[in-house]
Structures are given as C-alpha cells and as structure tokens.
Prior knowledge:
The complex is a heterodimer of chains A (87) and B (378). Chain A contains two helices and four strands. With 87 residues, chain A is α+β, with helices and mostly antiparallel strands. Chain A starts with a strand and ends in a 15-residue tail after the last strand. Chain B has a seven-stranded mixed beta sheet, with helices on both faces. A four-stranded antiparallel beta sheet of chain B has the order 9-10-13-12, covered by helices on one side. In chain B, strands 1-11 form a two-stranded parallel sheet. The mean pLDDT of chain B is 97. The interface between A and B is medium-sized, with 16 and 21 residues.
Amino acid sequence: MELDGIITFMSSYQALRAERAVKSAAIPTKMVPAPRDLSPTCAVALRFPWGESDRVQGLLTKQNIELDRCCPCPEDAGRPAGWGKRR
Amino acid sequence: MIYLDHAATSWPKPPVVIEAVTRALDTCGNPGRGGHPLALAAGRTVLDAREAVASLLGVPDPARLAFTRNATEAMNLALRGLLLPGDRVCVTPLEHNAVMRPLRLLERQGVSITILPADADGLVDLTAARTAIAGARLVVACHGSNVLGTLQPLDDLGELAHAAGALFLADVSQTAGAMPLPLADLPVDFAAFPGHKSLLGPQGTGGLYIRPGLSLPALLAGGTGSLSEQEEMPDFAPDRYEAGTPNVPGLAGLGAAASYLAGIGLDQVRKHEESLVAQFLEGLRFLPVIRVLGLREARHRAGLVSLSLAEVSPDILAQALEDGYGICTRAGLHCAPAAHRHAGTWPVGAVRFSFGYSTTAAEVEEALAALRTLVAGL
C-alpha cells in the first residue's frame, strides 16, 4: 500500500505520539526525514496511506496530538526519476 | 546498517561502557548521600569517571570538571553565569544553537552579540577579529563545526581573547574524545563537552571544564550531599555546579568510555578519523555535481563532511541512502542555522556524513559507492 499521505509536526514529541496512535489502529505508517519544502521545523514526518486521512486525523484529534500539516504527497515526490521507486 | 551519524551521537558504544552502566545500576546508591556501601560505591563510581575524563582531556585537577546532562547544559551554565546586561560576547559564525539560543535569550536582557569576521569556511579572520574582540567580556568558539567540520585554532583565539581582556569559552562538542585536546595547556577558560559523542559515553552526560581560579554562579541550586546544614549552595567545585542526584549509570559509562579511549590513544583516534575524512573527500572529488561544504583538507576538519546535491532535497537524499543502502546520515539544519546561513545552505540544509572510531574504511567506500550510483541516476 502506498504511503502517499504525510503529516509534519512542530516537534518530534508529537510525531512519535502520532506514530504510536496510527500504528495502534493498524494503519500502515513510516517515519521519514521531514520534507524540507513542507516543514523546516521538525526533523521527522509521518507517512501513511492518504485514503486513511480522515481516520488518521480523527485519531490524532482524539488524542490531542498537534500537527503542523497533513497533505497528500506521493512517496517518490522530489525523488529523481533515475533513482527508481523507493524500496 | 552503516551508521554515519557520529556527530549526533556515537554508536555503537563499546561493550565496556554498556557493562559499566549495568554494573552501576546494580551496585550504586546515591553518591554523597549516606555512608552505607551503596552510597559509597556510587561516590567512587562518579569520582572514577571524573578522574578518567579529566585525565583524557588533560585536566590535572578533576574537580575542575562539572558534570552536566549534556554540552548544552554546560553552555548554559557558562553563558548565563558569565554574561550580564551591558556585556558583549563575540562568537564565530558557525555556532550551534546550544550557544546561539542561550545568547539570544541573554540578548533580550541587554547582552550584545558580535559575529566574528570569518572566511567562507567559517575560519575566523584573526587579524580582523582583534578589533571585534576589543572590549568584549567573552569569546565563544566551536572548536569543530558540526556542519562544515571547520576546526578553529583554539590557541590563537584564546590568546586573542585574553590579550583583549576577555574570557574564552570553547565548544568542544565535536572534538572532545576525537583528538588530543589538552585543555589545561590551552588558553581556554571554559570548555563545554558532551559525553555521548566522540567520548563514547551514554546520552545524557556531559560537562564543563572551568579553569582553576575561575568560578560561576550555579545554574541549578539544590542538594549536593555536602554542607547539608546550609541553605546556600557550596562555593567549591564540583559541588557548586552539581545540584541534585547525578546520572550515576551514565557517568559510570562515561568513565569507562574515557578509560577505553585512553587505552587506544586520542592521537590514534584522530589519525583514524582523519583518514576516513580524507578518503571520503577524495572520493567526492570525482563527483563534481556534489557540493561539499567546508575545507578540502581533512587535517583542518573534524570527523564529518556535509554535502548537498543540486536539485535534490537533503531529506530525499538521506532517505534514499537509508532505504537503498542502509546508510544513516543526518539531513537538515543540524541545529545550527547560523552555520548553514554562513555556508549558504539555509533554509534547505545539507546531508551530513559523520565518522567515529568504529567507522571502517569499507563503510566509507560503501557510502561513496552509494553516492556514485545515486549521482549516475540523476
């Protein structure tokens, strides 16, 4: 399943809480270096399937997890075509 | 996995460090609090650690080392203790936020900040700096930049500061444990160091060297296990700077790490890391599309190289290195926006490769091979 949604945060504290919340709902997720064009503030961001965005945002709201941005972002966004798909 | 993020923290820690941490948890009480065997064992453990680190850093009197949680706390202890409204402080353009954030807070209280003139690599222009330092209370310099790797000449800067009547505070976060650094023989009044980078100790350890004859106000006040009848902080070191129960397991690990490094020899550690930097820089010469930050000579650098790849965001490059090759680097601004501004890489940042004593030449070659493949795919 493509992790084509991304959430950025103001702090890694919130990012790690979000990762736990999303994982506990059995939604595929992965922590990645935060895309510089989306977030210059926090080192990490959370990827997830954009189709689950309502559920994910609901989970975060329910647990008072503060996020910076939540948007669709293809996994290979910004990746040179010659590098192929991400593993 | 190839771990090339030693500038953030060293990994793996030597087995003797892990054993010392475990042993301390198993055998130590609260140091200086009581005369029973567990309290005494903890006291001896912290004393051993202080003596081992002092010996490694060329400090004859171990009491001149105040243990802290990290270099940041050590920096705060020095900066907040030294600078008063109306004072002026001079810094290099490459300072980490461990220096710049406390200074920006102090600036609001009336401390003024002068950025010392420097060349493109951040190396301070000693002639021009002489004028800038005149009348300053304090000069602060990171010995090795955590972004550009640039090594500043601590002896020249310290002498310049002293000639102007200023004190000199060195940030040795990227160099303590990575090269011979005889603090007491250098014109350094204070030096802040982390315990968990090249010193190979656990996270949550660090310290401040305070030259004999100098004193600072305590950053934290509280119990020290000494002068318990008084409600004032002791005026003697190291107690004055170490209120509250210390991180005994962490310091046990730090002491074991210092002894481990002493057994290897810091000149040997430096020789190894310098050869890795030279190997990496040499390999990068054949990849002109990559912009290497900082000086090209390994002997003028700490054990790290930051780079950027035109039109590829640092986070994308770092992720590609991790996903495709298992190489851990650090993308972004490295908590040093001042250094990135100076290098012209703000706000995008760069990807930093940083090496440690455990890094091998084969791992550096794998990193170069990965970069060659990625560059070929552009």
